[in-house]
Amino acid sequence: MQPALSRRTFLSLAATVLPGAACAHVDPRDSHAPHATETPRPLDDGAARHLPGLELPDVALPSTAGGFVHLAKLTSRRFVLYAYPRTGRPGAALPDGWNDIPGARGCTAEACAFRDHHRELAQLGADVFAVSTQSTEYQKEMVARLRVPFEVLSDERLELATRLSLPTFAAGGMTLLRRLTLVVTDHRIEHVFYPVFPVESHADEVIAWLAAHPL
Asked: For the segment 55-92, what is each residue's pLDDT rounded down to a tens digit?
């Protein structure tokens, strides 16, 4: 099995799209669609303060590109890992009370933003990965529909969440990751964005931080 990093060029070419493609056709009833700033603003509860400086655990997570990704063994010096609760599907019912959970909405908008800025992030020396507790099969539908050019990882068994004590919440009988973004350099967490709000401009926020902190 090839390392996940070697598939980056293939994924980028396979998912080349015009900015905003696919997301413009998201069902407006889907609360994960763009314009998620109407969601209640999440507050910093301190649940991510322990993360800066931690070394990534040797956990292998299933990838939408096939196989597993060992985050602690990637050969790139720096990458961005953004965690999101869950993406919905147009027309599908959402968990009860979803719209009232601070920071829950906006997963589709966030994926589209990181997709549209993928090249800029690469130019700044950062690969991009996303992670949620949804299954790989569920994630593959989202990747295909939105033409996401980076690998989405499944922490369905909560291995990464447990090893790093990532903040989670429960909804619809599921344990979901709270939205946060890690900048990992030389296998250690260099910076944490938490809470993330608004989601639509978060990729720009990450780009600005990377530009101000070059390798």
From this structure: 999 999 999 999 999 999 999 999 999 999 999 988 88
Residue 97's region, left for phi above 0, alpha for psi from -120 to 50, else beta, is left
Query: Could you give the CA distance from residue 17 to residue 22 in angstroms, rounded to a whole number?
Result: 9
Q: Report residue 125: phi and psi, to 5°.
A: 85, 20
Q: What percent of the chain has pLDDT over 70?
A: 82
* Residue length of the chain: 215
Every domain of the chain and the residues it spans: 4-40+54-212
Beta bridge partners of 32: none
Q: Distance (Å, rounded) from C-alpha 104 to C-alpha 93?
A: 15
- In whole angstroms, what is the distance from residue 132 CA to residue 186 CA? 23
CATH of domain 4-40+54-212: 3.40.30.10
The type of residue at 41 is R
Report the C-alpha gap between 213 and 118 in whole angstroms: 18
pTM, two decimals, is 0.86
| Contact between residue 4 and residue 63 where contact means Cβ atoms under 8 Å apart | yes
pLDDT tens-digit profile of 133-180? 999 999 999 999 999 999 999 999 999 999 999 999 999 999 999 999
Q: Say how far apart CA 99 and CA 85 lie, in whole Å.
A: 13
